[in-house]
Amino acid sequence: MKYFLPFALPDIGEEEIAEVVDSLRSGWVTTGPKTKRFEKEFVDFVGVQGEAISVNSATAGLHLALEALDVGAGDEVITTPYTFTATAEVIRYLGAHPVFVDIDPNTLNINVSKIEAAITERTKAIIPVHFAGLACEMDAIIAIARKHGLKVVEDAAHSLPTIVGGKLVGTLDSDATVFSFYATKTITTGEGGMVVTRDPSIAARCKVMRLHGISRDAFDRYVSTKPAWQYEVVAPGFKYNMTDIAASMGIHQLMKARRFQQKRQEMAERYHRELADMPVQLPPAALPGDMHAWHLYVIRLSDASPIGRDAFIEAMAQRGIGCSVHFIPLHLQPYWRDTYALQPEDFPHALKAYQAAVSLPLYTRMSEEDQSKVIAAIKEILAA
Length: 384
Ligand SMILES: *Cc1c(COP(=O)(O)O)cnc(C)c1O
Prior knowledge:
With about 375 residues, this protein is an alpha/beta fold.
């Protein structure tokens, strides 16, 4: 077969496989003891004085967090257009509206200095997205939220583990933080996510709403001394619970999360060194003492590049290397563009970043030779 290096691949070992098999043999395949264990170990990993609520995707987790914060019809939620559509779609699930604020052209995170101008009487919350695994300016965002009485839900789909101001994302002063375990993310359960919160009322509401609005989950009913058939429906909830099969993977992926981050960081540093003289803008590193999760390594072709972005990705593919683009900004997508009458120039920095952005392959299963091939291909294409 012809050599092809994909843009991303999960890193799943024998430990994950054995744990999944153990769940399959146990007879308990849905939410149960493994899910409970994964949640407990997640709390320990992050070091939060609070709870971790596992769900079947980060999208579900973001939806639950906003629902628990009482975001509803007609409300506004401030977020970035430079994200995956999940960040904004959950706002629409609740009948509320996203209000997009352009990004900082250096970090590609929401431009904090533009948030206050977007706040209205209907603004209920802010969803900062830690793009690629580099944290937003959370102290400033939380200060703005406090001043205006707004809630903050962090979209941490890229940021396990990310450190900002010496603290792990998940322990900051937001109302809730939502992680993703999708196949391409820094750790994976196939599909999955985790809501972390220090607020017991948010945790309680998320737990009820993730399983049909039932006040006791199936495993609680199974182990409780009260009759197993007895439960109460207190709200029209959702079906967002994580399975023990997924949690079995998560338990072992979490144990490897720091090692995975180290490997990603080393690879990012090598890209930094080797691409320093190329006509590309390299992604910013975390501040000294902080940590970048390096979910993505996004370069931007500069004006001096001899080739455009689309042609560059095509040329990489011809050399057997998969690249991607993060993200097509939401204001260019038909639904968001048409629903809110958005123009490309409404968010000039998001537009410009998108037009030049290329996500290079960066994952723990890549070998040094794989990365050498990526670097050689870039040098060849950009030398033309
Ligand atoms: C992947 C991703 C999500 C959604 O995560 P799922 O677990 O697939 O639902 C949300 N936000 C961002 C920024 C993402 O990249």
